[in-house]
Amino acid sequence: MSAGAPTCSICNARETTGFNYGVLCCDACKMFFRRTLFVKNINSCHRLGECIRKCRSCRFQKCIQAGMVFTPTKNTLEPTNNDQLSAFLFNLAHQEELRKYQLVNCWYDGDPTIAEIAEQNAPIKFTKRPDGFPMNLGEWIFITGLTSLNYLKKFNHVNMLNASDRHFLLKYSFYEISIFTDSMRACERKEESITFPDGSDIISEAVPGLEMSFLNGIRCRLAARVNDLKMTKEEFLLLSAVFFCNPGFPGISKSGCDILSTYQKIYSSALLQYCLVTYQKAGPTRFTDLLAVFQVIIKMRQDLSYLSTFLSICGFAVTKKKLYNC
User: Fold this and answer.
1) Distances, alpha carbon 89 to alpha carbons 38, 44, 152, 201, in Å
2) What is the DSSP string of 161-184?
3) What is the distance between the alpha carbons of residues 321 and 142, in angstroms, rounded to a whole number?
4) Which of 26, 54, 78, 305 could in theory staple to 14 by disulfide, Cβ–Cβ 3.0 to 4.6 A?
5) What's the rounded Cα separation, in Å, for the pair 267 and 253?
């Protein structure tokens, strides 16, 4: 190894060859990651992640934790390229499992802004949540947003944007994606309303001055739509990627919009291919129904913004981290 050469962030043994799948690593770890995505030859660790010599499972988890992300490079609408879609979904599913684990088990000691997070190239460093840590409404809102940001900032197209565009993309997308993940959790639990992982309500109590129908709309509208569609995990993952590449977000430059449009087409093609394979003739209709969910997310986002403003004006205590400052 050359003197002073950076060491691979995955194996910590070999010299890096550059950024591969978004992470500074060696060629061996790059090839291992790609091979695992396409062959999927990993089993659970027999030592529950406490290997002295890392098994395939632990090595792959290090790739996921470091932020390695695969993006399809071929047209997924071609039947011969189904392996690209399968590899992409396999990667997204493991990144989503990491996000879920961090949401339920971790916390973050700090109060970062969106701009500060956007400037960081590395994943956010969470720590294990202490036993008995009090998770109130404010803490759940904070960790939900932070884990969503950590999931989103790993996508390849994020690192292709300049600092300003990256900031605006994360600023205007993480709240919607957080809402969407909350609704998918309700669907997986077969619940009719959105709650936090511990089952607590996203709105603490009835709010004087606001109709209960309005508050129940926030709790239930998006979850009901996701439930009605019987949305699969694969659809949720691909749809989140499509929504995240919205070139219409305010403040993004022309070059940034071009990058987002390119990647949105890639992810949209992947979603359409999934629908065609899964639902065959009904695939195009299913694809359209899934895209329409975005309007429900926007409506819920508007209602939550109104609720936050109303509570603030009326003098109710509103716990707000810098993450949510406009």
Assistant:
1) 10, 19, 15, 31
2) S-HHHHHHHHHHHHHHHHHHHHHH
3) 7
4) 26
5) 21
Contact assessment for residue 234 and residue 276, using Cβ atoms and an 8 Å cutoff: no
- For the stretch 88-130, pLDDT in tens is 999 999 999 999 999 999 999 999 999 999 998 889 999 999 9
State phi, psi for 174 to the nearest 5 degrees.
-65, -35
Cβ neighbors of 137 (< 8 A, separation 6 or more) are: 200, 202, 204, 319
Q: What is the pLDDT of residue 41?
A: 77
- The per-residue pLDDT for 185 is 96
Tell me the backbone φ, ψ of residue 201, rounded to 5 degrees.
-70, 145
Domains by residue range for the chain, with CATH: 1-68 (3.30.50.10), 74-324 (1.10.565.10)
Angle at which helices 254-279 and 283-291 cross, to 10° = 140
What is residue 9's predicted lDDT score, i.e. its pLDDT? Answer: 84
Q: How confident is the model at residue 292 (pLDDT cuts 50, 70, 90)?
A: very high
Whether 50 shows a pLDDT value over 70: the answer reads no
pTM value surpassing 0.85 = yes
**Residue 276 CA to chain centroid, in angstroms?**
24
Distance in angstroms (rounded) separating the CA atoms of residues 187 and 181: 10
